[in-house]
Amino acid sequence: MKAPKDSPHDSGDATETLEPRSRDADRSQLAILASARDEFSARGLAGARMDSIAERAGLNKRLIYYYFGSKDDLFLAVLERVYADIREAEQRLHLDEIDPVEAIRQLVSFTWHYYLEHPEFITLLNSENLHGAAHLKRSERIQEMNSPLVQMLDTVLERGRRDKLFRAGVDPVQLYISIASLCYFYLSNNHTLSAIFGRDLRAPKAMAQRLSHMTDLVLGYVLH
């Protein structure tokens, strides 16, 4: 977990009294991150309140400053945590060990269902985009987290090219951005799209059609 940060609100004596045992510290930080994730996704960075985060976590507000330093630093920690979660889940797919065509199918399906099951991921990204990715630009971890995903997808594409299944020249980063965009845009704009086109785009049939459509689009692009 993160090392504690000095807070402008705490004196040296307060730091000594706040510092718990290592196991308790890990639990406290996880509780703060989970509470902050819920608060930031519900209210955005500007609307989120540290008092509410502390109350949700059942902890003293001073511990938030002790571990994370500031509201902006806590928001960055939450962003890093949610990105780490999806990257870890993607790695568990072991896409580089299965048939290349099936690997692409699974990546599209996984991304779609992950976004559906973790709506906070979309709302947190929306919030960060409103701030011009100012927090992620400060991250020392975010690019390192994404490297294994790019390598895994590049391996899948190379195996597909070698087996004469996929065409040459497919950039793994561009491909992933396209997959993420197809899923992200539909879900983040679902209410407005439903109103504009007069369809219930969250209906089960519409959702199944969307996944099939996205999969066909992506495979149509990569197949030889």
Mean pLDDT: 92
Radius of gyration: 21 Å
Shape: globular
The CATH superfamily of the largest domain is known as Tetracycline Repressor, domain 2
The structural class is: mainly alpha
- The CATH architecture of the largest domain would be Orthogonal Bundle
Keywords: DNA-binding
GO molecular function: DNA binding
Domain HTH tetR-type: 26-86
Region (Disordered): 1-26
How would you describe this protein?
By secondary structure, the chain is mainly α. The chain has two domains: 12-69, Arc Repressor Mutant, subunit A; 78-222, Tetracycline Repressor, domain 2. It has eleven helices and no strands. Helix 2 (22-47) crosses helix 5, helix 6 packs across helix 7 (119-130) and helix 6 runs antiparallel to helix 8 (142-162).
Give the tags.
NicS_C; 11 helices; Tetracycline Repressor, domain 2; mainly alpha; Homeodomain-like_sf; single chain; 2 domains; 74% helix; 224 residues; Arc Repressor Mutant, subunit A
Ordered list of secondary-structure elements with their pairings:
Elements: H1 12-18, H2 22-47, H3 50-57, H4 61-68, H5 71-91, H6 100-117, H7 119-130, H8 142-162, H9 172-188, H10 190-197, H11 204-222
Helix pairs in contact: 2-3, 2-5, 2-7, 5-8, 6-7, 6-8, 6-9, 6-11
